[in-house]
Amino acid sequence: QVVFALNQTLLQQERLRAGSVQIPYTTEDLIKHYNCGDLSSIIFNHDPSQVPNFINATLPAREHITAQETDSYFRQELIYKRNERMGRRVKDLLGEHPEKSFFFAFGAGHFMGNNTVIDVLRREGYEVEHTPAGQAI
């Protein structure tokens, strides 16, 4: 799976450099939607896992199965489990020090797709509030 993922990632990068494939959003789009707290927008619906899209119609049947398995593995290991760990760490800190105030800042990947850090904390009974860019804390 690692070799397959590496090859697919390199092929995707080659297509991007050659101009035969385009990213459906710009860096400015990412910044805008991150600042607005709108990470479930159309930008992130293209690939909510933040990993290369291994599944495409041009793959032979055998490689298509490998692509599905690899995509599922990366989503589970790199996205969902990571967010669970981060959410538990936040919960533990808050629980261990109820008298203290905390500020947590996360990268965009922790808010994308299903089972985000926010989802983890809300399941634990915490109220999570987005602070827009420019708003005083």
From TrEMBL:
Its cofactor is Co(2+); Mn(2+). It is a single-pass type I membrane protein. One of its GO terms (molecular function) is metalloendopeptidase activity. Divalent metal cations. Mn(2+) or Co(2+). It is an enzyme of class 3 (hydrolase). PANTHER family: METALLOPROTEASE TIKI, METALLOPROTEASE TIKI1. Belongs to the TIKI family. This is Metalloprotease TIKI. It comes from Oxyruncus cristatus (sharpbill).
